[in-house]
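Sample 3 of the quickstart, ligand zinc ion:
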Amino acid sequence: MPEGDTIFRTARALGRALIGKPVTTFRSTYPLLTRFDDDTPLTGQVVDQVESRGKWLLISFSGGGALATHMLMSGSWHIYRHGERWQQPRANMRILLENAEYVTVGFRVPVAKMLRAHELERALRIPPTAIDVLSDDFDATEVSKRLLKCRDEEIGDVLLHQEVIAGVGNVFKSEICFATATNPFCAVSALNAERVANLIATARKLVKANVLEDSGDAIVSYGGRQRRTTHGSDPGGSLWVYGRGGEPCRRCGKPIRRRIQGPDARVTFWCPVCQPKPDGSEIDG
Ligand SMILES: [Zn+2]
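Result:
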């Protein structure tokens, strides 16, 4: 599943191509979207806003409707100039939105809904901006409150709960735990207040650092850019632990471990030396 920073960058790129411009063509292979378009034609409407909210990407139109897409594992949005060759086959096109300058295509987008703007948050269970790591309204106190309610769960799992902290995906989960020297298998109840505050601040810092303006405003393909959470000391690798099972820890040199964690069976990477449990027991996690 794409991380929040990827959706944020996609929204930013799509926003540049679409906001303030009238739609000239709308097409979709989803009957529910085309039915909405039959009732309230999108052609001629102006795109007011494109934003990422949690893992949803929302495109709002001047007529009061909003297109919400969720990428899950397979979806992506591409931006092309008219006449430019697409990087995916036509058969993968699910949604197409054009204006005078650009052709934007949602390829293999598995979940797409058209809603009235005021229905969105409720209908999609979109997390409030207070717990969205990429929102200016982010409220660490609120996140801390929600996180501490999951006292019996492992922190590595809780970091993925979108109703606790929205926008942290599985890659960042492992990276945040490493950066704060937290054992991902540690129960929330075993974390002191200082560590909880540090985890939340680090989550925000790491995810935000990955949406800095450095990818240019040309065509952005979804997921095309590598995440960076190290400080550039190793140009060959961009992450501290994720995807590095068996390789030496960048801090202590001991092998990074890999294990499946939680009810959703997500993979977790950690260094048992740099990320011991608080009581020193079960150093392997
Ligand atoms: Zn280590």
